[in-house]
Structure formats: structure tokens, C-alpha cells
Design brief:
single chain, mainly beta, five-stranded mixed beta sheet, 3 helices, 14 strands, globular
């Protein structure tokens, strides 16, 4: 039995639709296409505009409610080569929440890279959950971010901020976050002038199919 997931990506001046397909009884984690930072911002805009607007009090109540069920998994970072044999920084993790949560959340990662010559750049990429999700959604989402090294020589991750929360009017209100060697996102973005906008994001989530198997959507 086949299921279909469609996520609509909005571009400036046009729209592009992409769909993921999987077969029941087998985990599908093959990569199809990455989403650039510019494309991701368009996705965020479309999803956010579809959500009911909340007052500051409503937003605070929802943030408090979700803080009891939403969490970040272990964050992993490694230098690998992409399909064009170019070095990239692979940054990935899972998020977990109550499968009954009727809300669409957004991840924002801000990663600082410093190479052996002391050159420092940062990348900031956001990605929003699929909406709507399968009715048998398990509450687990997988996120992967790929940052090209470009001309940097053997860069290392020297700081990062991972935030998962509610996006409204272009402002992300974190429900959970994890900071590494910084106290805030602004600490990274204010001290580093070099920005890498070539990063890509990949995303899929897990659900239970009609046969009771836990499977994933195709990675998009």
C-alpha cells in the first residue's frame, strides 16, 4: 500500500511541488532533494500564514504547554563528502513531541564554523514540519542540515544554537533549544560577518502504517 506526502514549496515568482512516497513495511530514508535557505524561508512563510494568529498570552500558554512534551534528541555533527565529492558539514538530530499535538513547529539551526586559518563563518537555516501529517504520526521527526565547506580549510563547528518552537510573524519562539559554547543565537550572528547561505535541509517523519509497521516518509 502506498501513501503520499506532499509539501508545497513557494518560490519568488512561482511555486514548486514535491512529493514523497513510501511502501509499507520498510523504512524509507533515501535522500531526494535538499532545500536551500532561500527556499526554506518561502516554506516558512506559507506554513506560518496558514496558522491562526495568536496573541502574546496565547503564544505564551502554548509555549508552556508544549515545553512538557517537546524535546530535542542527540545532536550529531561530522565532516563528510556529498555526491559531488565536495566536503560538507553534516548536522543532524531528531525531535520528539506528543503525537496528538495539533501544532506545526519550526526548527532553526545556527552553526558557526572556524577553519585552521582562523576564518569563521556561520550558517542559519530554518525548516518547518510537514502539515498535515499522517494520522498515525508517532511524534518523531528527523532533521538534517548540510553546510558546504567551500574554500574553508578543514573547518570545525565552534558554536551552534538549535531551536525548536513556534513561528509567528517571522519570529521564532523556542519551546526547546540547545546551545553549544554560546549563550544565545545573537552571540553567533553578531560576532561573525561571514555568512554561508549555501546550506540545505532535509526532513522526514515517522508514522505507523495500516499493517502496524513504523515507517518513515521519504526524505525531502
Amino acid at each position: 500500500m502506498k501513501r503520499y506526502l506532499m509539501i508545497v514549496f513557494l518560490f519568488i515568482g512561482g511555486a514548486l511541488a514535491a512529493s514523497g512516497e513510501e511502501s509499507s513495511g520498510a523504512k524509507q530514508t533515501s535522500s531526494t532533494n535538499g532545500v536551500s535557505n532561500l527556499e526554506t524561508n518561502a516554506v516558512l512563510s506559507s506554513v506560518t500564514n496558514a496558522m491562526p494568529h495568536m496573541t502574546s498570552n496565547e503564544l505564551a500558554r502554548l509555549q508552556k504547554k508544549l515545553s512538557g512534551t517537546v524535546r530535542l534528541g542527540t545532536i550529531q555533527s561530522d565532516t563528510v563528502r556529498d555526491d559531488k565529492d565536495k566536503k560538507i558539514e553534516l548536522f543532524k538530530f531528531n525531535t520528539y513531541q506528543d503525537k496528538r499535538d495539533d501544532v506545526t513547529l519550526t526548527v532553526r539551526v545556527t552553526i558557526e564554523l572556524t577553519d585552521k586559518a582562523g576564518q569563521t563563518c556561520f550558517a542559519q537555516i530554518s525548516r518547518t514540519q510537514a502539515s498535515p501529517r499522517e494520522t498515525e504520526y508517532t511524534g518523531e521527526d528527523n532533521w538534517e542540515f548540510r553546510i558546504p565547506h567551500g574554500k574553508m580549510e578543514r573547518p570545525k563547528v565552534t558554536a551552534y544554537a538549535v531551536q525548536y518552537g513556534i513561528l509567528q510573524d517571522g519570529v521564532l519562539t523556542p519551546v526547546v533549544e540547545q546551545l553549544y559554547k554560546v549563550k544565545s543565537v545573537d552571540e553567533i550572528t553578531s560576532r561573525v560577518s561571514c555568512r554561508n547561505d549555501a546550506g540545505q535541509s532535509f526532513y522526514y517523519y515517522w508514522y505507523v502504517d495500516d499493517d502496524g509497521n513504523t515507517v518513515s516518509t521519504t526524505q525531502n
